[in-house]
Amino acid sequence: MEERRESQPTAGCSDVGPGGERGGVARSWAPEDAWMGTHPKYLEMMELDIGDATQVYIAFLVYLDLMESKSWHEVNCVGLPDLQLICLLGTEIEGEGVQTVVPTPISASLSHNRIREILKASRKLQGDPDLPMSFTLAIVESDSTIVYYKLTDGFMLPDPQNISLRR
Length: 167
What we know:
Elements: H1 40-47, H2 53-69, E1 73-80, E2 85-91, E3 99-105, H3 112-126, E4 134-140, E5 146-152
Parallel strand pairs: 3-4
Antiparallel strand pairs: 1-2, 2-3, 4-5
Helix pairs in contact: 1-2
């Protein structure tokens, strides 16, 4: 009888199943010799020396999504050593204010206190203490799907321009 071996993940691919594990072993999301391992922005994120290779990899995936799919402007990476986070700062529409995006794997758990710490750090990064505290949480699934949630300090009324009227 021939023994079946579990396939190894392809460099640059997660090969992680639901719950972050496959066959009882968590796989790394980090690209080992993939093209993104030599990308200047990926290398810049690695130089921040914050978190592990998985955090850098998901931050890079979010960076690519913001730049290539969503056409954001001037997206930069910033390390928050106290929180062990890599944040992305950018503008969705040219000329508008800077937004903070916090990439996180779907397996991460965030407490209310942790969210409050990120909100405070985001306000400092945005540089305007009069703005309401907010950041966008970019949740990355193992298949590289990214879902964005805007988190604020309390409730905020939606912009009337973004509301479609139902009749």
